[in-house]
Amino acid sequence: MNLPRPGIDPELLVPLTELPPMPPLGPEVIEQLRHFPQPSIESHLEGRAVERREVTFPANDGTPIPLSILSPTDRAAGAPCVYWIHGGGMMWGDRYSNIDVPLEWLDRFGAVVISVDYRLAPEATGTTLVDDCYRGLLWVAENAADLGIDPARIVVAGASAGGGLAAGVTLMARDLGTPAIAAQLLSCPMLDHRNSSTSSLQYGGLDGVWTREMNEFGWRSVLGDITGDNVSAYVSPALADDLANLPTTYIDAGTAEVFRDEDVTYATRIWAAGGQAELHLWAGGFHGFSALFPHVRVSDAARRTQADWLARVLEPGPDIKD
To answer: Which of 17, 154, 167, 272 keeps 20 to 30 A from 134, CA to CA?
Structure first.
C-alpha cells in the first residue's frame, strides 16, 4: 500500500512527464548514464570571461585525480572559492556535471570554482570517494596563493551525492583540523545509507528521478561488503555522533523526495549541537528539481535563495556599532 505523500509542484509536473522513464539501476544502465550526453564545458563557458585550468593531484594511493579550476579573468587577489562536488548517485557524473550552478556564483561573486573528478562506485568503494574529495580540498588550500583565492573564504558545495560527499569532507576537515572551511552548501544531500526515513518510504516503488530503490542500489554500490558498525560517518554523514564545530551550513531539499527527512534531521542535529544551519524545504520539489528545470518558478526561487545565502557568507555586511 502506498503511503500518502506530498505532491509535485504543478509547474514541475509538465517537464517531468517529458523525461524518459528511468529503468531499474544495474551495471548496463550505470554505463549508459556515464555516457549520457551533457552540455560541454565549452558551452557553459561561452560568453563568460573565465580562465580554465586543468590539473591533477595524487589520491591516497597515488592515483591522479583531475581538478578543473575556473577563474574569472578579472578576479581580484584573494577571491572566494567554491569547491564543487558533483552529483550522480556516487555512480556517474563528472566534474562538469551541473557546473552551471557554481558558475552562477562565479558570475555573481567573482568566485574561483574548482570541481573535483572523484572516483565512482562500484569500482571505488568505502571511503575512497570522500578521500578523493578531501585530498582535492587539501590541494586547493595548499595552493591558495597560486590560485589567487582567500583560504579563509573556501566554501564546500555539492548536490545530491555531491552534497553527501561535501558533508563528509567537512566532517573530515573538522576532525583532522585542516583545511579551514568557511561554509558548506548541501543541496538535496545524500546523507544516510540506512534509507529508512518516512520520506524514503513515501517515495519508494515509484517512477521518479531518484527513488528509494535507486537509493538502495547506490548505497550498496558505494559500501560493497561494508555493513553495520563498519560504515564510516565520512561516507554516510548521518552516522556522525557529533555535529558540533561545523562551519555555517546551508541545506535544502524538496518536500517530494527521498532525502527530505534525513536532510531535516541533519540540520536539526547541527542546531542541537549549537551550530548554525539554514534549512529550506521547497514545496512540491522532487529530487534535483532546481538543477533539471531551473526556469520553473520554484526552481528559480531555490537557486536565488542559495545565492543570497552565499552572498551573506562571502560578502558580510559592515559591522553594526553602538
So the answer is: 272
